[in-house]
Structure formats: structure tokens, C-alpha cells
Design a protein that fits this description.
single chain, about 180 residues, about 0% strand, binds fe (ii) ion
Length: about 180
Amino acid sequence: MSTTRLPGDATAGETVARMIRVDHAGEYGAKRIYQGQLAVLGRGPKGDVLRHMKQQEQVHLDTFADLVARRRVRPTALLPLWHVAGFALGAATAALGERAAMACTVAIEEAIDEHYAGQTAALGEDEAGLRGTIEKFRAEELEHRDIGLAHGAEQAPGYRLLYTIIKSGCRVAIAVSERL
Ligand SMILES: [Fe+2]
Ligand SMILES: [Fe+2]
């Protein structure tokens, strides 16, 4: 963690608690997005690929749920919102088509990649375990991004707009889940 601390800055412990809080929220939302997509596309040709990604999100979520419990971190108060909004985003993009669902994956996973990269850069040796966990998950989020691209995300109608809106929304969700 940084060694200089200005008045009003979070303490190192608070900073790590915020990280765990927002990552728990994000993995919860990610699982709900894939559940929403599976509700629409689960029986289709992309069902298995969506189930693979949802399964990895479940492992990510279980890991952060465990950290929330063991480190006594207050979970975000917004979990009920992410429960509904995540599923709705997944189902809505899936309803637009398989490629739009993949565009959603690319936008979300790129935002998460940037977010996790920032966290691993900020964590010091005293949090090497947490940093390793985040690095592993970050690699899997990039795998999800690549799956989205391989399955035609960029060919989705209105890809740029869809991508920009979803990525911006994801960044807002990250910012509020760190604090609330
Ligand atoms: Fe994840
Ligand atoms: Fe992911």
C-alpha cells in the first residue's frame, strides 16, 4: 500500500476492505449477467460457452464471499440491485442476439480487467495472497473477453454503442460498490 497518507485518505485496511467489497459485488453481478444470458440462450448453440463462463464466475464469487466472511468486510448494500440489474443486462443483451450477448461480455470483462489491473498494482507484498487471487481471476476475465470476441461480439449490430454504454455502466457500478 502507499506509504504516504493524506488526511481523509482511507487507511490501508479500509482500502483492502473496499477492494474485497467491490470485487465481491462485481463477481456477484457477473454471475447474474451470465445467468440472465443463459435464461435466454441456454438451450442454444452458445449455451455451453456461457455455462463455462458462469461456472468460473461462481468460483470467483465464492472466493470473494469467503474473503468477505473471513475478513469481516461489510458487503455492498447494493447486492439486491446487482441481483436484478445483472440478470436484466444479461437477459436483455441475449434477447438482442448471441452476438450482442458476446458484446456485453467483451465490455464487462474489459472493464473488470482494467479494474483488477489497478488493484494488483496497488497491493503490496503484505497482500501477496490476495494479489495472486486477483491476478488469476483477471486472466480468466481476459479469457472471457477473448471468448466473446471469438464468438462474434464485434459483429453485433450497434457494437460500438453497446460496448460503450455497458463499459461505462460497469465503471459506475464499480465506483459505487467500493463505497456503498
Ligand atoms: Fe469473474
Ligand atoms: Fe468474467
